[in-house]
Design goal:
With 255 residues, the protein is mostly beta strands. It has two domains: 46 residues, FAH (SH3 type barrels); 196 residues, Fumarylacetoacetate hydrolase, domain 2, CATH 3.90.850.10. 11% of the residues lie in helices and 43% in strands. Strands 1, 2, 3, 4, 5, 6, 7, 8, 11, 12, 14 and 17 form a twelve-stranded mixed sheet that branches. The chain has a five-stranded mixed sheet with strand order 9-20-19-15-16, with no helix packed on it. β19 and β20 form a beta hairpin. The protein is globular.
């Protein structure tokens, strides 16, 4: 099943995508959504970020290939950081290049979407808390990350968390292929089989620190191939059996 969040007549709605048609659903997101008799052609609606997370918990250095690329030792435990909810944008929206940075990087990732509240979730029960998966771009001001030593500013700018185009519920979390393209050229290619810490292990670790809420996003880390992007560039994150998240980079203040 593919859950979408979309705008029609200026109102945010939830629905389910079948082929090129979205069926509107009503209710509380991810708790008791019920189908309606309203249908919309996909090309007639505006897709939004597929959920409204209270927080985005992201993983640093969680692919073997990325650790090798960065010439860093494998972490002894998951490395986590937070991106604010205000950094979220959806498919087709613009990534704004901040004036305070001279290097902004793409980082294509698999996003895990949480479907129900949980605290101290065991690894064995972790997948019961997962609604599905989406494409994610963990946009990073790399120069600021190095300057600050901690990552809040570098990862937290508005528009630095691109999510979409929808949530796919039917995937094997241990075998999700991901690619990132910059201006049509392949830059990253990975698979969750290369994760240092698996998705159940990540959920267990994070939920022993903080309560996970419906709609929260866990960004599972990026494979090798990270690099800079500049105003005018178009970045695409593609996930097998999900789809493509496409965003353009613009100068601050430009539309």
């Amino acid at each position: 099943m593919r859950y979408v969040r979309f705008s029609t007549n200026g109102k945010s709605e939830y629905g389910v995508l079948n082929d090129h048609t979205v069926q509107k659903y009503e209710g509380k997101p991810f708790k008791y959504l019920e189908p309606t008799n309203e249908f919309y052609p996909l090309e007639k609606i505006k897709l939004l970020a597929p959920c409204e997370p209270s927080k985005i918990i992201a993983m640093g250095l969680n692919y073997h290939s990325h650790a090798k690329e960065m010439d860093l030792p494998l972490p002894n435990s998951p490395l986590t950081f937070l991106k604010p909810s205000t950094s979220v944008i959806g498919p087709g929206e613009s990534i704004v290049y901040p004036d305070s940075s001279s290097r902004v990087d793409y980082e294509g990732e698999v996003a895990v979407v949480i479907k129900k509240a949980g605290w101290r979730i065991s690894k064995e029960d972790a997948m019961d808390y997962v609604l599905g998966y989406s494409c994610f771009n963990d946009v990073t001001a790399r120069d600021l990350q190095r300057a600050d030593l901690q990552w809040t500013r570098a990862k937290g700018f508005d528009t630095f968390a691109a999510i979409g185009p929808w949530i796919e519920t039917d995937l094997d979390p241990s075998d999700i292929g991901i690619e990132t393209y910059l201006n049509g050229k392949l830059k990253q290619k990975g698979n969750t089989g290369d994760l240092i810490y698996t998705i159940p292990e990540i959920i267990n670790f994070i939920s022993n620190v903080m309560t996970l809420l419906p709609g929260d996003i866990i960004a599972t880390g990026t494979p090798s191939g990270i690099g800079p992007m500049y105003p005018g560039d178009v970045v695409e994150v593609k996930i097998d059996s999900v789809g493509t998240l496409k965003n353009k980079v613009i100068n601050n203040g430009c539309q």
